[in-house]
Amino acid sequence: MSIGEGRKPSIQVDEGRLYQEIIRVEATDKDCTPLFGDVCKYEILTNDQPFTIDNEGSIRNTEPLSHKISHNHILSVVAYDCAMKQSAPVMVNIRVRRVCEAHVMGVAERIDYIANSMESVSLFPKIHLELCDMQCKGEDMVIQSSVSLKTKHISFGCDRDASQCLRRLSENGPQRDGNNGDTSGLVDLLQKNTDWTKDLTYDEGAE
């Protein structure tokens, strides 16, 4: 029994796709008896490969392939007759073709900036556009982009900065209310060390 008469099948597929069938292998057996002459099963012997093969010899991928992870996958495939006699293995080479999509590159996933810092920070110093060898004229190209900035803290916006309030209080000095009470100090309404506030989420920083 042999698969593909000793040939080494090879095929090229695009990355990022799931195929119903990539390639089909077929085993033949010179034995004419039903038990030893019929092919009942195919198997991929190569471990840890994102491929599967059915009883008809059809190979497909179980997850989208990545050209960056692997340029090609070499699979060792065998067939079994109905008496579970194994054939000699044949090597199937599945080459992964890189699919380029126009996109922006060089954007950092995270940029740290200290609040109240007077220093400027360049957001995208290495940004560039990958056009994948697209042929287009400059006057026909229109590129639009937008940038949104937000914090992951429990409060948002510029009004979350309590340091400005503290500075104003210190500059204005003690002030009196109508009952001659001193209102220059701040009262901590959510003290961290109390039982009723221990499960609350606090912002970073001293304020």
Q: What is the structural class?
A: mainly beta
The helix/strand series, from N terminus to C terminus, equals EEEEHEEEEEEEH
Helix content: under 10%
Shape label: elongated
Oligomer: single chain
Describe the structure.
7% of the residues lie in helices and 23% in strands. The protein has 207 residues and is mainly β. The strands form 4 sheets. The chain has a 4-stranded mixed β-sheet. A 3-stranded antiparallel β-sheet has the order 3-7-6, with no helix packed on it. Strands 1-4 form a two-stranded antiparallel ribbon. A hairpin with an 8-residue loop joins strand 8 (72-81) and strand 9 (90-97). The longest helix has 10 residues, at 163-172. The model has no long low-confidence stretch (mean pLDDT 78).
TL;DR of this structure?
It is built from 2 helices and 11 strands, in the order E-E-E-E-H-E-E-E-E-E-E-E-H.
Question: Which properties best describe this structure?
Answer:
207 residues; mainly beta; Immunoglobulin-like; 4-stranded mixed sheet; 2 helices; 7% helix; 23% strand; membrane
Q: What are the SSEs and their pairings?
A:
Elements: E1 2-3, E2 10-14, E3 23-24, E4 27-28, H1 34-37, E5 39-44, E6 51-53, E7 58-61, E8 72-81, E9 90-97, E10 103-105, E11 128-130, H2 163-172
